[in-house]
Amino acid sequence: MIQITIADDHELIRSGLSMIIEAHNDMHIHTEASSYTELLEALEKAVPDLLILDLNLGDTNGLSTLENISSLYPSVPILVLSAYPEEIYALRTFKNGASGYLNKSIVSSELIDAITTIMRGKKYISNKFEEILPLGTDLGKEEKDLVEILSKREFEVLNLIAAGQAPKEIAENMNVSPKTISTYRTRIMEKLSFETTSQLQRFAYETFMGEKYSTPTREENKL
Prior knowledge:
10 helices; 2 domains; 5 strands; Rossmann fold; Arc Repressor Mutant, subunit A; 223 residues; alpha/beta; five-stranded parallel β-sheet
């Protein structure tokens, strides 16, 4: 029996995953967590065979969530569940300890395949992501994608900019000072050859959200 822990801050997502998983006799939902704090408490009590993890849990965001859990519990395989495009996030998650990556838009059709693949000791790459990987790409190699020239922290800042967060909010989420966030933003703009904040906002939104960017109002444009 495969014991599985689900960590996602949306109850509907957890319920949907549970229904799919519990329909299989050899799989069981061990525990559920709606926040990073709850997840840590659950893992301290008992370690599951597999963790399904949403990177944004409300009280923590981004790749640092994955990195922290992977560091604390290296023996637990982690299947990352995210709304972000695979071509942007998947390779990053593998580098930070994930055993698999699923976009929430395709989770119902591939979830069981992902779980069984990971439990056999293999990495799970979705059919869609496998199609966009360059032939012969190895998950240990440096990516060629434009966003991949950023450091991990710069990548997280760009992610939070895409989510519409102001510098103060980003600083609080990452537990650093607003001045540090300003430094990260400047580095990102230099590396990606942007001259204005609006160019950065547009790129971040369209890259992570996969949608066309609408110019924010004066009140929204706080960066």
